Amino acid sequence: MKFRRFYAIFRKEGMHIVRDWRSLGLALAIPAMLLLLFGYALTLDVDKIPTAVYDQDRTPQSRDLIAHFQGSRYFHITDLNATYSSIEKSINKSNVIVGIVIPKDFGRTILSSGAAQVQLILDGADSNTASIAIGYANALVATYSGEVRDRELSRRGTPKVKLPVDVRVRMLYNPELKSKNFIIPGLISVILMLVAAMLTSLTIAREWESGTMEQLLSTPVRPIELLMGKLCAYFVLGMADMVLALVLGMGVFKVPLHGSTLLLGISSMLYLFGALCWGILISTIARSQQVAFQISLLTSFLPAFLLSGFIYSLDNMPWIIQQISRIFPARYFVAILQGVFLKGIGFGLLWSNLLFLLIYAMVVFVIANKKLRPKIA
Amino acid sequence: MWERIYEILKKEIRQALRDPKLRATMFFPPVMQILVFGFAVSLDVNNVKLGWLDMDQTEQSRSLLHGFQGTSYFSLTGVAHSEKEAQALLDNGTADAVVRVPYNFGADVSKMKQTEVQVLVDGSNSNTASIVSNYITSVISGFNAKTLSSQRGARLVAASRNGPVLLAAPSVEAETRVWFNPDLKSRNYFIPGILVNIIMIVTLNLTAMSIVREKEIGTMEQIMVTPIRPIELMIGKTLPFALIGFIDSVFVTVLALLIFHVPFRGSALLLIGAAALFLLSMLGMGLFLSTISHTQQQASMTSFFFIQPAFMLSGFTFPIRNMPAPIQWLTYLNPLRYFMDIVRGVFLKGAGIDALWSQMLLLGIFGVAILVSSALRFHKRLD
């Protein structure tokens, strides 16, 4: 491998990237757009759940219970004068997710020390919001139930009944439970995969399509020099995206970084290198942009998006899908990213993930190098 | 005119079916997507990895542990003997949550003195964390209720020697009824949404790509010297992909029903009608993309640039309700939002035209507007 020829290829690729403003713009604009979307617009945090109330009782007790819901930031009461049919209609139109129905004898039952019932009707279609809403609603009703009981017992002069076990839940790593704190670090893996595998495979497939690859062949450039030159040019672009992600994520969206920057840097480079080699490998197999796009979408973007634990937790997937996810580097990198950003854990716990990224990068590099050779020769 | 459209159609379909790779891209990715998405996309928490730090080791603490093991949600993945080990279980991801039972737990419980159980939850995935914390709290409330009732029984026996004691205290219970998806499976919510994504990707991409490819390899000029008029070319270029989009969506719906047993409660006719309206927007977008792209790479990157945010802002995973207000207004311009509502309404709620007419109407307006303006632009570009 001669440095001069490698450098010539590197410069040529660099010029290609800079000159094609659209590819360059997209290579930087898509990541920026994804970061803005996930940092600003998209959140899984459930609050202000639209709620309708059907109060058949209209006693101080029922109003007291409603006040508990009004005071909670998780519920937003949109309709205080609902009826069964209006709740049904609103849920059908997805205007309301929770319906609270307070039966006629609610206040009387409480006054006569009975067990009063409240009916909660939930739109289960969005199961995630519904299950979180059930948790909040049950907790509110339980709190109210405790208050009512204590009030009655103190009126009677009997000692208050304390719950035998008091639960103290402490959230580690992400105490405010903000979804962006785990989504943005994971997003880095999607962004790098996007730029590396997709953009690279497309650009090189274009060279095959338009025949400029053959022109390169007639020069004394050797495959390894060609490979390295292209890799390095896109590597620079990928690293620029990495920096963009860090600046936006940490600077603008205030995602905390608890772990080591060095570990973050090393793992990103390994991952990026592997992804780039994968992109080149795709282009040598596909040879046409349309096919390269489809293959890279299926083998790089989708796994990085879905099979990485970036939004959807891997633990809850069927066994076979979990095994498939092990073939792709994204899940290892997402584990590193979330570990370094949120948990602040180091090499001691993450070495196996790093090792996989290294092996993956080397294997794909060797194959890409081999695949490129016979096509050139 | 129809003759020429027919010829273009024939050419397009032949071209699309001739290339084995292209043929594969029409049907293979949708199947892959429905399978991968269907199995992978879930926000359910079915299996909580529980760590246990029992400093008490009494009958009572073991009974609390049985409470956890008695539900199908928890599996005990680690037993810690110190705070440090508990932290390690969470650090390396062996456990999603660690329950820490304090020293005199058993003694306090039998003395009817309040005791405190600490729960450490890995909050890094905030969504999982809040569900995990709900599950744990409900298991402990179950334990509380059981203990309280046995205590009450004991007190009643003790107190009854001096005459009856009124122990009944008022309480309020929530009776929960979940509609449409009683098992709260997120798969039922996501799979209909995937249909939207697949139709979009297939039709938008194929339309844009097939036109841009002709431009790129120079056959567009050859077509233009023939007597074919732009409108005929457009119809010939979009109809085959509309057809493929339809076939794909029926295919994917059948797969969704067969493999994932997603309920389908509404009218198939309504869904087909909505899909046709949605296709108008997508074909229009495809045409539009083809007018702003010169190479297939540009087309695919640009389409990606449209598809990604449109999909993200459609309410597929992230509820539109939770977005900041300006973004929520923006989503009103997104045809996917309406189609997503319709598809989910039809599949899960059995909603009819009376609940969905506004979405249908807007989808139709957007479809016609996008298709007509793209067609005009396309027409101008060709002249």
Integer count of domains of chain B: 2
Mean of pLDDT of chain A = 86
Q: Would you report the number of β strands of chain B?
A: 5
Number of domains of chain A: 2
Strand numbers in spatial order across the main sheet of chain A = 2-1-3-4
The largest sheet of chain B has its strands arranged as 2-1-3-4
Q: What is the rounded distance between the termini of chain A?
A: 16 Å
| Count of separate DSSP helical elements of chain B | 14
- Give the overall form of chain A: elongated
Proportion of strand residues of chain A: 5-15%
| Helix and strand run of chain A | HHEHEHEHEHEHHHHHHHH
In what range is the share of β-strand residues of chain B? 5-15%
Order of helices and strands of chain B: HHEHEHEHEHEHHHHHHHH
Q: Could you describe the largest sheet of chain B, including whether it forms a barrel?
A: 4 strands, mixed
Largest interface: A-B, 116 and 108 residues
| Low-pLDDT ranges of chain A | none
